[in-house]
């Protein structure tokens, strides 16, 4: 598929994200690289005839630091929620495209292609659909597809026509569509989508079909049979919601076998989750895992692109569904690029010209908060390959924040800029070792957690 060049824009520096709750945390890993000014994941992917994109959702479109990255780094966007049935046809025959239109407009304004997601799914389905009599449901499905894909005709490059229709053992999931219409509903959905938008490539999309196994075998057999019968399917979406250190070894082989059936493949919802908190070893494993997925896609010409399921750890679905897990994406919650970002960057052909990460990382935590004041603790960790002899942490004071008294470091402020250097006794950190400093602060506003940078002396 044609992949436009992403716009060359500078990504905003890591910016504070207000985290709900009394105790908030912000981390920044110092990984400055000349490569940062050189390219973006979108442009690198485009040079390889692919896209590299992100899912997004409506609430984050009002977050300027977030949209600065979303609009500049990627050349593809997936509508993460608001094209789903619940939003587009909340009551029978009443369609609402307001929210999804906003995301599509954002993508168009930033030269990004759009993957439509998703027309037929048992989840995020309004209750009324479950109550449609069996004899009417196919008509309702056709009408929904006709209206939604018709509305976006010419504006999406792919549609996830049917999502997650199989169980892990390869049998059909017993959804309302399966139970009331029967096996034929998937083929009917693809036919309706082709009629509604002849230009969009039509995808079947699922999770746990990334490697070879019972579930991906079932999808493979379905695609093979659709091809034989002339049912209009153009692609298979491998969601790739993966676990740290567990990228299936057969991803490339799996992509290749689908390609050989005559369909495209896309990695549609990539994230690689870990037990939180992150540390340097987990970050390194995650970078290796992301690299493996990108390499598997690049190895097969018909693997047309990769989408991360949002790009920042602050905006991932994982922590709410898998308690204790997260940090699954390529930017941290403060929009700092993680080692996984640089692994993708390199795998896509970019050159990382400095040693990542140089020296140290700092994590800022609000440990207590009261009206007008707070206590914070900053952990400084040596993430480099040699012992530090000193370190410097910087951040910007916002919304009336001030540092009143500080321990285990030497404070200097210049206007809004706070700089803390090591105390005489804690500048030396062995590789992987950490130290902390703390302070009492005052704040007249919401006391946002700042983005902190760390540099070694
Ligand atoms: O919009 C309401 C909001 O009004 C309400 O205050 C809030 C309270 O919980 O809920 C909001 O709705 C949430 C919605 O996301 C929008 O944020 C739902 O509770 C929540 O369940 C829903 O989760 C979405 C999930 O699909 C539903 O299954 C995730 O954001 C979305 O990322 C996720 O995406 C799916 C893909 O579509 C298919 N593949 C798996 C992937 C991850 O689950």
TrEMBL record:
GO molecular function terms attached to this record: endo-1,4-beta-xylanase activity; polysaccharide binding
SMART domains documented for this protein: CBD_II, Glyco_10
InterPro entries: CBD2, CBM2/CBM3_carb-bd_dom_sf, CBM2_carb-bd_dom_sf, GH, GH10, GH10_AS, GH10_dom
Record-annotated CBM2 domain positions: 353-457
Catalysed reactions, as listed in the record: Endohydrolysis of (1->4)-beta-D-xylosidic linkages in xylans
Keywords from the UniProt entry: Carbohydrate metabolism, Glycosidase, Hydrolase, Polysaccharide degradation, Signal, Xylan degradation
Active site positions: 269 (nucleophile)
Alphabetical list of Pfam families matching this protein: CBM_2, Glyco_hydro_10
EC number: 3.2.1.8
Family: Belongs to the glycosyl hydrolase 10 (cellulase F) family.
This protein's name: Beta-xylanase
Lineage: Bacteria, Bacillati, Actinomycetota, Actinomycetes, Pseudonocardiales
């Amino acid at each position: 598929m044609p992949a436009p060049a992403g716009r060359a824009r500078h990504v905003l520096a890591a910016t504070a994200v207000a985290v709900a709750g009394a105790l908030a945390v912000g981390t920044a890993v110092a990984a400055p690289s000349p490569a940062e000014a050189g390219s973006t994941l979108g442009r690198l992917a485009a040079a390889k005839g692919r896209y590299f994109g992100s899912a997004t959702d409506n609430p984050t479109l009002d977050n300027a630091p977030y949209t600065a990255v979303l609009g500049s780094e990627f050349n593809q966007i997936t509508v993460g929620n608001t094209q789903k049935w619940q939003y587009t046809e909340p009551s029978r025959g009443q369609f609402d495209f307001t929210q999804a239109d906003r995301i599509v407009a954002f993508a168009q304004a930033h030269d990004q292609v759009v993957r439509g997601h998703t027309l037929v799914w048992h989840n995020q389905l309004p209750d009324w659909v479950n109550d449609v009599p069996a004899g009417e449901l196919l008509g309702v499905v056709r009408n929904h597809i006709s209206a939604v894909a018709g509305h976006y005709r010419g504006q999406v490059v792919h549609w996830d026509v049917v999502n997650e229709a199989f169980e892990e053992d390869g049998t059909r999931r017993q959804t309302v569509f399966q139970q009331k219409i029967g096996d034929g509903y998937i083929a009917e959905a693809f036919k309706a989508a082709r009629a509604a938008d002849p230009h969009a490539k039509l995808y079947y999309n699922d999770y746990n079909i990334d490697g070879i196994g019972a579930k991906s075998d079932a999808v493979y057999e379905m695609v093979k049979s659709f091809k034989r019968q002339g049912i209009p399917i153009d692609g298979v979406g491998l969601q790739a919601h993966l676990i740290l250190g567990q990228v299936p070894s057969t991803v490339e082989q799996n992509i290749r076998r689908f390609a050989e059936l005559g369909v495209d493949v896309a990695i549609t919802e990539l994230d690689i989750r870990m037990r939180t908190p992150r540390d340097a070893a987990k970050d390194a494993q995650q970078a290796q895992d992301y690299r493996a997925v990108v390499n598997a896609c690049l190895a097969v010409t018909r693997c047309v692109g990769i989408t991360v399921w949002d790009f920042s750890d602050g905006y991932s679905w994982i922590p709410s569904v898998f308690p204790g897990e997260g940090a699954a994406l390529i930017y941290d919650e403060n929009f700092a690029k993680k080692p996984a970002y640089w692994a993708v960057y390199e795998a896509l052909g970019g050159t990382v010209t400095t040693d990542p990460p140089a020296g140290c990382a700092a994590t800022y935590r609000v440990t207590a908060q009261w009206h007008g004041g707070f206590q914070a603790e900053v952990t400084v960790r040596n993430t480099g390959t040699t012992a530090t002899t000193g370190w410097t942490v910087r951040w910007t004071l916002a919304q009336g924040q001030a540092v009143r008294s500080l321990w285990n470091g030497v404070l200097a402020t210049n206007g809004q800029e706070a700089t803390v250097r090591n105390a005489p006794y804690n500048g030396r950190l062995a590789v992987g070792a950490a130290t902390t400093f703390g302070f009492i602060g005052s704040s007249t506003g919401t006391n946002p957690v700042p983005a902190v940078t760390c540099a070694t002396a």
